[in-house]
Design goal:
The chain is mainly α and about 220 residues long. The chain contains seven helices and seven strands, in the order βββαααααααββββ.
Amino acid sequence: MTNDPRREAPLHRRTALSVTAALLAAAPLLTACGADARPGAAAVVGGQRIEVASLQAQVREVRTAQQASPQAAQLLQATGDLSREKLNSMIFDRIVEQVAKDHGVTASRAEIQRTRAQAAAQSGGVEQFETRLLQQQGIAPDEIDAAVRREILMTKVAEKLGATNTPEGDKKLTEVFTAASKALSIDVNPRYGTWDDAKIQLGAYDAPWIRQLTQDAPAIQS
């Protein structure tokens, strides 16, 4: 396994991967989203708004967790675009939910808790697990359940599609997510860039969606 936690990895490698690893700072509020006036919206996905206030709340959660870390200065200095990173994640979550719904896939609370506990144990404990996610993924403790849920859903979708760990499997899974992205007609506030359906990410944000969860510890598994 590489020592670079930001290395791009294939979309289908569900159990060893997680959404994004970049760290960003809060962005100012704009009152327009796309060509239409949508005051307070960071993006509109499938006709549903992602409010700037909700985005900023996620940024604050990460900042609060960073400031409580012994590596606070290093983390804060390294995180220049947390608002864009979090918007990426919030949009992608809605795509995952849509794909899961389309394929009849769900994740129960018990599955989420079991998977989280297994990952924490494999990482050396809850504190170590939370620290790794904060440092390498910009995920605050309160956001871990959502990240675990995303992994479980993506794993189940890939299994249902028969998307194996091959170039063909990569292509099949990417096509499904791209189609869902297009169907949701994602419209992003220009402050954060534009959405790229083919890459399934903000066009102005140069980072792959799926990252290795940790450098050398076992990843979340379902």
